[in-house]
Amino acid sequence: MTGRATRRSWFIWFAAVTVYLLAVFHRTSFGVAGLQAADRFGVGAAALGTFTVLQVGVYAAMQIPTGVLVDRYGPRRVLTAAVFFLGLGQILLAVADSYPLGLIARAVVGFGDALTFVSIMRLIAAHFPGRQYALLAALTGAIGYVGNLAATVPLGLLLDGPGWTPTFLAVGLVTALYAAVVALRVKDSPPGGPAPVRGRVHPKLLGRQVAEAWRTPGTRLGFWVHFSTMFAPNVLTMLWGVPFLVQGQGYPKSTASSLLIVFVFGSMIGGPFVGGLIGRRPSLRMPLVGGYIGVAAVIWAVLLGWSGTTPMAVLVPAFAFLSLGGPASMIGFALARDYNPLSRVGTATGVVNVGGFVATTISALAVGVLLEWTGGAFRLALLSVIVVLALGTFRMLVWWRRTRAVLFEAEARGERIPVQIRRRRWDAGAPLPVSS
Ligand SMILES: N[C@@H](Cc1c[nH]cn1)C(=O)NCC(=O)O
């Protein structure tokens, strides 16, 4: 969309972003429900970890299919299915009384979650002008954290009060019923805008759609931006932050959990700031990513090099800065939006979203394996974060130069390009990607 966003666009976004809030609430609900789940299903820590791995696995595996579905059937249908499956998963969890049933319920939640984010990004691309995309994407991310907050103390109170079955039944039913609001209120495109092209789904054509998105240098750059920026905050908040602070640093568990809230507030505040800035000045996108990665590398060096317990005065600002990785990763989606036609934005967004989750999985597994090998040496194990960061940064720089080369070519042909850039020393000899 090139004109102005209307009140209708904002209503549609609001109806859609509520689904993301619900998705993040359900995604993170095992943070407080984990202990009760262990009791209910009679399982230990390792089996409990399987819930998270399964949920993230389903989420990551579904990203590209989700993008294709969104481009094919439109975000309204996919988002309606998303909220329905999120609710269904929690209803199943409410009545599940065995470990396998609990796992199935969580996989259904992961499936609904996987359908959510890409649909909302596609709605934003259709209903808002390009310059507002980054801000709306960042606001969406920030609102997701409200769901994360709701899944802490409020959900804990509900589980301690009414208990497991009434709580999950209630949140599941409310969520599933919200599918009606999405189906009625959300529209795929503004009046007169292009509708998704439906018809028979031909696997060959779908494969071509994914291949074209992947071959587009801007998508690939977005993938590596997402890969490099969002995994470290994820690894800390989803898995290794509390063990690092408790076993590695000697802080009490309650202090460690409270410290991780810095990530929630950092992203909620930083997201709209980063989004607003890059919406006004798209040429700042890559310098911001570069600046974030540079400072993050220094922070990791300080955290891992500190002898003895790292003081709070260092941890709090360090975590506050690292929390900006989430908002910075949204730059990856802005690149997918700018460098793909609207008919392929869903697929390209799905491709980009795989980046951060692949990096999170690699890094979380590597930390676990290294902890086992070293007998719990957190500083050595967390070095793997720096290795993943270096790999992501290297690939990102490769695709940054290639994307710039393609832009210069397009400019020379007199085509409209998404950002104005000046040729620099490092652009000399940058190869054009084979497909362009
Ligand atoms: N980059 C995250 C979202 C985000 C925004 N601010 C902080 N994090 C992302 O890719 N999210 C995908 C999802 O499904 O949540």
TrEMBL record:
Question: Which subcellular locations apply to this protein?
Answer: Cell membrane; Lysosome membrane
Annotated coiled-coil segments of the chain? none
Gene3D superfamilies, per this entry? MFS general substrate transporter like domains
Q: Where is the Major facilitator superfamily (MFS) profile domain?
A: 12-404
Can you tell which superkingdom this protein's organism belongs to?
Bacteria
Q: Which UniProt keywords apply?
A: Lysosome, Membrane, Transmembrane, Transmembrane helix, Transport
Q: How does the protein associate with the membrane?
A: Multi-pass membrane protein
> What's a single GO MF annotation on this record?
transmembrane transporter activity
Give the residue spans that cross the bilayer: 12-35, 41-62, 74-95, 101-121, 133-157, 163-184, 223-246, 258-279, 286-306, 312-336, 348-371, 377-398
Its recorded reaction(s) are: L-histidyl-L-alpha-amino acid(out) = L-histidyl-L-alpha-amino acid(in); L-aspartyl-L-lysine(out) = L-aspartyl-L-lysine(in); L-alpha-aminoacyl-L-lysine(out) = L-alpha-aminoacyl-L-lysine(in); L-lysyl-glycine(out) = L-lysyl-glycine(in)
**GO CC annotations, alphabetized:** lysosomal membrane; plasma membrane
Task: Give the function comment from the record.
Answer: Lysosomal dipeptide uniporter that selectively exports lysine, arginine or histidine-containing dipeptides with a net positive charge from the lysosome lumen into the cytosol. Could play a role in a specific type of protein O-glycosylation indirectly regulating macrophages migration and tissue invasion. Also essential for liver homeostasis.
Task: Describe the subunit structure.
Answer: Homodimer. Interacts with lysosomal protein GLMP (via lumenal domain); the interaction starts while both proteins are still in the endoplasmic reticulum and is required for stabilization of MFSD1 in lysosomes but has no direct effect on its targeting to lysosomes or transporter activity.
Q: Which family does it belong to?
A: Belongs to the major facilitator superfamily.
Protein name (Swiss-Prot/TrEMBL):
Lysosomal dipeptide transporter MFSD1
